[in-house]
Amino acid sequence: MRLNSLVAAAWLASTAAAVAVNPLPAPRSITWGSSGPISVPDVLVPNLPNNQIVVEGWYRAWTKIVELRWVPQATEAPIASYPPFPTASPAPSSSAVPSASKAKRRQSHIDTVSVKVADLTADLQEDVDESYTIDIKESSSTIQISAQTIWGALHAFTTLQQIIISNGHGLIIEQPVHIEDSPIYAWRGIMLDTGRNFISVPKIKEQIDGLALAKLNVLHWHLDDTQSWPVEMNVFPEMTKDAYSPWQRFSHNDIKGVVAYARARGVRVLPEVDMPGHSASGWQQVDPSIVACGNSWWSNDVWAAHTAVEPNPGQLDIINNKTYGVVEKVYNELSTLFTDNYFHVGSDELQPNCYNFSSYVTNWFAQDSSRTYNDLVQYWVDHAFPIFKKIKNRKLVVWEDIILNDPHAPNVPTKDLLVQSWNNGLTNIANLTARGYDVIVSSSDFLYLDCGFGGFVTNDPRYDVMVNPDADNANFNYGGNGGSWCAPYKTWQRIYDYDFTANLTDAQAKHVKGSIAPLWSEQVDDTVVSSKVWPRAAALAELTWSGNKDPKTGLKRTTTLTQRLLNFREYLVANGIGATPLVPRYCLNHPHACDLYYDQTAIH
Ligand SMILES: *[C@@H]1O[C@H](CO)[C@@H](O)[C@H](O)[C@H]1NC(C)=O
Ligand SMILES: *[C@@H]1O[C@H](CO)[C@@H](O)[C@H](O)[C@H]1NC(C)=O
Ligand SMILES: *[C@@H]1O[C@H](CO)[C@@H](O)[C@H](O)[C@H]1NC(C)=O
Ligand SMILES: *[C@@H]1O[C@H](CO)[C@@H](O)[C@H](O)[C@H]1NC(C)=O
Do you know which SUPFAM superfamilies this protein is assigned to (predicted)? Predict the structure, then answer.
């Protein structure tokens, strides 16, 4: 008997809905048996390796299993009695196998978990092995977990959290079960911006909890921006004069605490200090001469003269050589707080007009009339990157602008560099990978989590229109982008359906290392961050872990993600993560009743 029908039988007394386990991200391979679930007591004998991260990870998972007594909230399999879908086909990720031997005596309950880790020392860095297997054999009372590294073991635990469920009374798990799992991509994450608005340490940890449950493994932390500098610095304590308040700062201990919290959950923290663009706050306190155009009008009303793409302006002065001394000290101190081999050094959206306010730059151009803005950006690469690379094992992440924008640096080496692509979707991914750059996909048209909330700039006359013209006459408001440059809002379906390696050669596709969904924080702080990240980031989690296609048919499985994601949203909320609802609860209770197309292959 399949788990959903058995659980339903036990649970129907209290509810009309059938339930089924449906972990997210869908594992690469699950094989369920057909002999029905076995009970799991509240106390198991754990047979764990002597490793603090594994032991703590196990008890964290086990405590949640026992505390939450999770009952899946949205079943993937259609409910027999609900039209229009009869129970025709089994759930795609599962295949019933005959019971191995009916003659073998079944155990009455699970009593042990055994966790074997081949290599206890592998560090949490890019490309660490995250694979794991979970096995419960038919005649066994042991849950067997094996993993190459402790980080894979942590993923096994979050899978177990979703497949040991309650039947309304005790805990149960389907037996036998065999899971083999590993991610497609090494980089799977979200980006938080604590520069435009502050996000507190507890809220950052809440996001990390969600990342871990979704098997996302990167928190890209955009620490500062022109608007504020929230990071306490020993080398230049004056920088936090540009924090929003004394309470909206990160101490060294705060940062080390976030890094340790993330690491304990298998999440790497990628720090970013955006340079030389997006740089006024903090830097200007150290030495105003290293910031160009900080006091200019950002000039959106005279676009030809703009010094920034959003207020407030400010860019590190590339020619003033005092800049590099300050940058080196700040970068070196921050490098002691983070444990990842990678450091993100920004490099996006340089605005040439800003440098008209710098006498260093204008003199430099005057000295040699052949010099171009591309040469200026190259000067930054040639002078700043050697500083960044001095740290042992250091690799860099940059935004693609420094290679693709006008202006850009003509000569950016491909070695030890990851390029984060955010413009022009597949076009830029194809361009960068063809040129041998390793790429993190963050295409704004698909993955920006902040889009679609209108404009934040004030005194904007484009809203002062008393009509809703028809679509043929689309203006800024109706039919337009409503002031959000990357409108509309990216729904989970938009994210999940993104085939970001489409039309790449195999050689190009190998250069795609994963994907990060950014959440810029012009309109985000503690009050809304979780609802903007979740559960949409979980759609990216499955896309980057096991893909958006059914491994057997090769067809898009967006329609089967639906119930998995709706269930996972409820699970996030149960775990204290403020994920937004995606549908009326009716849709969750009535699988596929809210589909636009009756045809389940409409997305393929
Ligand atoms: C900035 O300087 C460049 C080079 O002299 C010039 O072409 C450009 O028009 C200036 N921009 C503004 C806004 O004055
Ligand atoms: C700093 O810049 C000046 C020109 O403004 C140059 O003469 C000097 O060599 C530079 N110093 C260093 C250490 O690069
Ligand atoms: C990449 O884009 C640039 C323009 O931004 C273009 O000059 C170049 O030819 C493109 N290269 C490839 C390989 O597509
Ligand atoms: C892939 O290339 C084909 C042939 O040029 C084109 O028709 C198709 O639109 C491309 N797909 C994507 C997703 O760009």
Answer: (Trans)glycosidases, beta-N-acetylhexosaminidase-like domain
- Dist CA 354 CA 328 (whole Å): 23
* Single-letter amino acid, residue 601: T
Domain boundaries in the chain?
A: 5-183, 187-441+501-535, 452-488
Class of CATH domain 5-183: alpha beta
- 5 pLDDT band, cuts 50/70/90, is very low
pTM across the whole model:
0.93
Nearest ligand 3 atom to the CA of 434 is: 13
Closest atom, ligand 4, to C-alpha of 499: 13
Longest CA–CA separation in the chain, Å: 90
SS (H, E, C) 50-111: CCHHHHHHHHHHHHHHHHHCCCCCCCCCCCCCCCCCCCCCCCCCCCCCCCCCCCCCCCCECC
Is pLDDT of 343 > 50?
A: yes
- Atom 11, ligand 1: which residue's CA is nearest? 353
List beta partners, residue 268. 218
Which pLDDT score, from 0 to 100, does residue 89 have? 39
Q: Which of 431, 437, 505, 508 to mutate for ligand 3's pocket (most ligand atoms within 8 Å of CB)?
A: 431
Q: How confident is the model at residue 475 (pLDDT cuts 50, 70, 90)?
A: confident
Give 138 or 529, the one with higher predicted confidence. 529
The residue from 180, 328, 333, 349 that is catalytic is 349
What is the model's pLDDT at position 102? 43
Q: Evaluate if residue 333 carries a pLDDT over 60.
A: yes
Q: Cα(447)–Cα(518) distance, rounded to whole angstroms? A: 7
From ligand 3's centre to the CA of 403, what distance in Å?
A: 10
427 lines ligand 4 (CB under 6 A): no
Ligand closest to 446 (CA) is: 4
SS3 563: helix
The model's pLDDT over 62-97, given as tens digits with 9 standing for 90+, comes to 999 999 999 988 876 544 434 444 343 344 443 333
* Among protein residues, the one whose CA lies closest to atom 4 of ligand 1: 356
Residue 77: per-residue pLDDT: 55
Residue of 424, 427, 503 to test ligand 4 pocket, by largest number of atoms within 8 Å of CB: 503
Concatenating the DSSP letter of every residue in 362-421 gives HHHHHH-TT--HHHHHHHHHHHHHHHHHTSTT-EEEEETHHHHSSS--S----TTEEEEE
Which ligand number lies closest to the CA of residue 405? 3
Report pLDDT digits (tens) over 253-303. 999 999 999 999 999 999 999 999 999 999 999 999 999 999 999 988 899
Which atom of ligand 1 is found nearest the CA of 304? 13
DSSP string across 16-36? S-------SSPPSEEEE-SS-
Q: How far apart are CA 599 and CA 259, in angstroms?
A: 46
Nearest-angstrom CA–CA distance, 175 and 110: 10
Active site residue 349: yes
